[in-house]
Specification:
This protein has ten helices and 13 strands.
């Protein structure tokens, strides 16, 4: 096989996202430890049961990135590989993928993309990579265009709880303090791989309104682009948000998807992540 696309499981993608005899696709799972139990973030994970386990324990839960060998196994499947990972500021997945690249005798033909974000942003990069491959672009052109596209993607999110982000050190102390204030519903965003607060709002309805407004601020031209709304067991709010975005903008497509293991672990129940 000439091309392989692989992505870590923080992308929320399942292994059948791309089914193509000419382009391979695989999802490399992260793992999450809850007490003495380890959950693999793959196609078989029962997310509602996984969330119940997290919510029923007082212990600090931890996530672990894939090993270099996990990535290397995918690199060996094709002549050229495009690997997309969660932001290096949120996980060691990117570094693990780089180590695997350096272990391979095909390393000149492997592109490891730090998405700088997570969830739907990674889906957008994967879909862009697949589109470029199917257009017949050469590998050097694909690398250039993917990285340019990566840099154009934005992400906003709203969470009910920040517990696991705070406990696992994924937020700065100042941001974590603000996020934990009961009277504040922060609208957050990804900035060069880090979590930052864009606005501090007091109501859920208000934060959704400001999220929609900020899409236009961050991405003035939405025609020709795709928006991905990722939610943790909160389809009602996700569909409401979709309707608000459709009313305000001209995205070619708005996808609503469930957060799977890793994103559910950090976003927790009710969380909404919007990538565009």
């Amino acid at each position: 096989m000439k091309f392989e696309i692989c992505v870590d499981s923080s992308s929320n993608l399942l292994s059948n996202h791309i089914v193509d005899d000419e382009v391979g696709f695989d999802v490399v799972p992260l793992t999450i430890r809850v007490g003495n139990e380890e959950f693999v973030d793959d196609d078989n994970l029962n997310v509602p049961e996984f969330l119940k386990k997290i919510e029923s324990t007082s212990e600090v839960c931890k996530s672990a990135c894939p090993s270099p060998q996990d990535f290397l196994n995918n690199y060996e499947k094709a002549d050229y590989t495009i690997c997309v990972t969660i932001s290096n500021k949120l996980s060691g997945s990117y570094n693990s993928a780089l180590v695997a690249r350096d272990m391979s005798d095909k390393k000149e033909n492997i592109l490891v993309v730090d998405s700088l974000l997570t969830a739907g942003a990674m889906r957008l990069i994967v879909d862009k990579a697949y589109s470029l491959i199917k257009e017949g672009k050469d590998f050097e052109t694909i690398k250039k265009e993917i990285l340019e596209y990566r840099d154009s993607i934005k992400l906003l999110f709203v969470l009910d709880k920040f517990d696991n982000l705070v406990k696992n050190g994924r937020m700065s102390k100042v941001v974590a303090f603000i996020a934990q204030l009961a009277a504040i519903k922060p609208l957050c965003y990804g900035d060069e791989g880090e979590i930052k607060i864009k606005e501090k709002i007091r109501t859920f309805k208000g934060v959704l309104k400001r999220l929609v407004h900020n899409i236009g601020v961050m991405c003035p031209v939405t025609k020709g682009r795709t928006c991905v709304i990722s939610h943790t067991q909160n389809e009602e709010s996700a569909l409401l948000l979709k309707a608000l975005i459709e009313e305000a903008y001209q995205f070619d497509s708005i996808i609503v998807e469930d957060n799977r293991g890793l994103c559910s672990f950090y976003a927790l129940r009710g969380g909404l992540i919007v990538s565009f």
